[in-house]
Each structure stands twice: as structure tokens, then as C-alpha cells.
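@channel sequence for tomorrow's demo:
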Amino acid sequence: MTVLDFSARHPALLSPTAEFDQVQAEWESRVVCVSKLSSQSIEEMTNRIHSPIPILRIFDEAKALSFYVEWLNFKIDWQHRFDKHLPLYLQISRESCILHLSEHHGDACPGSALRVPVGNVDELYRELKGRPYKGYFPEVKATPWGSRDMSILDPFGNRIVFTTDAESN
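C-alpha cells (generated this afternoon):
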């Protein structure tokens, strides 16, 4: 059991008085409660790696919103500008897929690529086909490695590959 020494922070508690003993006993009981958590659960809380959030470079807010929000059906979670005439940075999401879009030079390179796992790529294909977008005609293709992929280029040259393992379909 670890006992915390508060004497450096509380000089008035340097002498062993009844007040000090009471404070120390209270803190020891709190430490014992905390130590009852397994070291594994503490490690899981602190060392857990979460899904990455890709940043995609955009150059035109209207085109980005038309493509990502209106056609791909993402929603805007939040957006930020340092000033009304400065570049936009925003977070969009659809279910558990989170993307950041940035007009800031240096945040990302145009022409990036990312793979987005989906439950059923054929259902997504049918959804997008029912809502045509400016000459985009995505196709679902079987890959040699066993997935079914639908590759789409956004208006800024970023490639988004929606993918489903063949076993999942």
C-alpha cells in the first residue's frame, strides 16, 4: 500500500498531532480504496489505444460539405476558425467513423488515402447510388485479399475506400 506524504505541501502538518493523524488516516483509507482497483484495469484505462482520427485536406468549404455531409451523410460534430476569414477545421462523423477536415496548409496532404471498414459495403453502395453526386459512379469490387471495396475520390483528391471483409457479407 502506498501512503502519500503531504507534509511538503502542508507545513502545518509536520508535527505528529491528532489532526495530522486524522488526515493521514483519511488519506490512507482513500489509497486503500484506490488500490483495490486491479492494476490491469488501471492499465486498460491509461494505456488503451483508440482508433485514429484521420485529417483530410480540403480547399473549399462548400464542396466539402456537399460531398461529405450531403452525399456521404456524415454530420458535422463541430467546426472551428480562428477568425471568420481564416481556414476552417471541422470534425464530421457517421456512426463510429470520425474524420477531421482541414483547410489549414500543413495539416494534411491532398491525395491522402484511408480505408473505412463498413458492415456491408453493398448496402452503402445502394444508398449512394440512390443519391447521385456530380458524376460520381462508385463501384464495389472484390479484391484478391478477400474484401469488397468501394473506392471514392473526394473533390480534393483524397481517396476513401469503404471496405467489408468478404466473410462479413
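heads up for whoever presents: Helices lie at 18-35, 39-47, 61-71, 121-129.
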